[in-house]
Amino acid sequence: MKVLKDLLYGVPLQAVSGSTAIGIEKLCFDSREVSKGSAFVAIRGVAADGHAFIEKSIASGAVAVICETLPESLQEGITYVEVADSQYALAIMASIFYGNPSRNLKLIGVTGTNGKTTVTSLLFELFQKAGFKTGLISTISIKIGEAVYPTTHTTPDAITINSYLDKMSEAGVEFCFMEVSSHGIAQQRMGGLHFEGAIFTNLSHDHLDYHKTFAAYRDTKKRLFDGLPEGSFALTNADDKNGLYMIQNTGARKYSYALKTYADYRAQILEQQLDGQLLKIQEQEVWTKLIGAFNAYNILAIYATAHILGLEPLEILKLLSGLHTVDGRFQYFVSKQRITAIVDYAHTPDALKNVLVTINALRTGNENVITVVGCGGDRDKSKRPVMGHIASEMSQTAIFTSDNPRSEPPEAIIREMEAGVEAQNTRKVLTVTDRLQAIRTACKLAQSGDIILIAGKGHETYQEIKGKRRDFDDYGIVKSVLQEATS
Ligand SMILES: CC(=O)N[C@H]1[C@@H](OP(=O)(O)OP(=O)(O)OC[C@H]2O[C@@H](n3ccc(=O)[nH]c3=O)[C@H](O)[C@@H]2O)O[C@H](CO)[C@@H](O)[C@@H]1O[C@H](C)C(=O)N[C@@H](C)C(=O)N[C@H](CCC(=O)O)C(=O)O
Ligand SMILES: Nc1ncnc2c1ncn2[C@@H]1O[C@H](COP(=O)(O)OP(=O)(O)OP(=O)(O)O)[C@@H](O)[C@H]1O
Ligand SMILES: N[C@H](CCC[C@H](N)C(=O)O)C(=O)O
Ligand SMILES: [Mg+2]
């Protein structure tokens, strides 16, 4: 059992009512999770205000309440702690509750609009293969060595993060690679963590529904680097126009990587084909199964990180060439009819453009590119016309369909995508609201040699419509449709 006053060490307090020398069995930020002996942290969120659930949490057994505003009437026998920032308090308390596990291993955070899952997952694979016990916290899953755990967020809440870091530390994990989303930073989910280093991939349009302006989104990402402890490292993409800005105020050791400009770590693309590309990294050639300029950046960031963390260049290059593509990231197969189907998690304008640039560079003649794409509901609406524009401009046929409409009418989302299509491209666009039918349509339209891109959902195994999730797997579906066509 933990003692409340120990959990509050380092949390700026505004007022305390009751004893802090009490035992705490469980730490919660959701009243529905509270049980006897819990400390309940009330958070003002986007949809609700945790302060409204203080009484409910006490009725469920909470013995301490941490909040930004004390309730008007205080209950006897309950300890109330007023803090300026509940989210920060939760993060610090969660770290202490689990014994500050981030200090028992080397934790490396990866942030940026695109490439976080790719970079963290491949660093995980590389360090495992190099013989280290390794951990991963990513959009797809959480891993501790060979053990795999499902996850709901790219960056989980502070309690979940610390509970997994604790498990990792118990299992003897030496390195943990973790995706750091802008929502995670804004909500201080990493508040009490000790980072060994952080990596910046790139910055482009996303999540403006939440951050409102691009500058606010950018500055949220920068906070990860501003907060790095002394002795840690900050690695940035010097080709990205915000790359140097990200690390300008950090106290960490600074490193950069780039394909175009001067940087500590440099790479060049020598050859490119569907099953891989040949890169030159720091004057050494290496073959990788991951294609596209965007993946050259990812591979270079991985090389630089492994080098900064002490691996030998030749060993890194050998391991890099053995890395597999990440689920749902440029995951492809070629059917018997010689149709190439690619499933990719491009759900931002920049990612969609990068993937289509890569695909178009693979065309040798008159092959058609058929893109099936939609945009998620209840999320950044301003990316919809931009993605509609890119898909119609860079494909011979674009089939606009549903992604995860969530609570929005799918047709309304598609209308917003259509608004970005230029007049000369409208004849290239088909609308098939049902994603399964859209994939079937693409398969029917494709001729031998053509390339089908199914973008936006990547590894996801569900589709969320009107708040309900049903099984859905882009890769499994396109594979079975194309195989049925030949059987
Ligand atoms: C908009 C957003 O990010 N919301 C996250 C946030 O919720 P919130 O604090 O706004 O929650 P809220 O529903 O307003 O409720 C406020 C408080 O009241 C509490 N409550 C609520 C109801 C109740 O009965 N009792 C109770 O105590 C809630 O637990 C909460 O503490 O904090 C929660 C706990 O950490 C998250 O689960 C939740 O993620 C929602 C589900 C979500 O969809 N988030 C997405 C957008 C997200 O975080 N995405 C990023 C990826 C972005 C990227 O790819 O770059 C991610 O890291 O996954
Ligand atoms: N370095 C990169 N630069 C630009 N685009 C990229 C890069 N790496 C991957 N992409 C594109 O972005 C998509 C998502 O990649 P990935 O899942 O690695 O990003 P992420 O940052 O983890 O995304 P999320 O914010 O959803 O967690 C890929 O499917 C690909 O289309
Ligand atoms: N990490 C992204 C995932 C979007 C994936 C897309 N398929 C959608 O549902 O919008 C986000 O939180 O916006
Ligand atoms: Mg991710």
TrEMBL record:
Instruction: State the SUPFAM superfamilies in the record.
Output: MurD-like peptide ligases, catalytic domain, MurD-like peptide ligases, peptide-binding domain, MurE/MurF N-terminal domain
Q: In which pathway does it act?
A: Cell wall biogenesis; peptidoglycan biosynthesis
The main location class comes to cytoplasm
User: What is this enzyme's class at the first EC digit?
Assistant: ligase
Q: Indicate yes or no for the key word Cytoplasm.
A: yes
Q: How is it modified after translation?
A: Carboxylation is probably crucial for Mg(2+) binding and, consequently, for the gamma-phosphate positioning of ATP.
Q: Which residues form the Mur ligase C-terminal domain?
A: 328-458
Please state the Enzyme Commission number of this protein: 6.3.2.13
Query: Which residues are UDP-N-acetyl-alpha-D-muramoyl-L-alanyl-D-glutamate-binding?
Result: 31, 154-155, 181, 187, 189
Gene Ontology biological process terms in this record:
cell division; cell wall organization; peptidoglycan biosynthetic process; regulation of cell shape
Binding residues for ATP, per the UniProt record? Answer: 112-118
HAMAP family associated with the record:
MurE (MF_00208)
Q: Please report which protein family the annotation says this sequence is part of.
A: Belongs to the MurCDEF family. MurE subfamily.
Question: How is this protein named in the record?
Answer: UDP-N-acetylmuramoyl-L-alanyl-D-glutamate--2,6-diaminopimelate ligase
Tell me the organism: Robiginitalea myxolifaciens
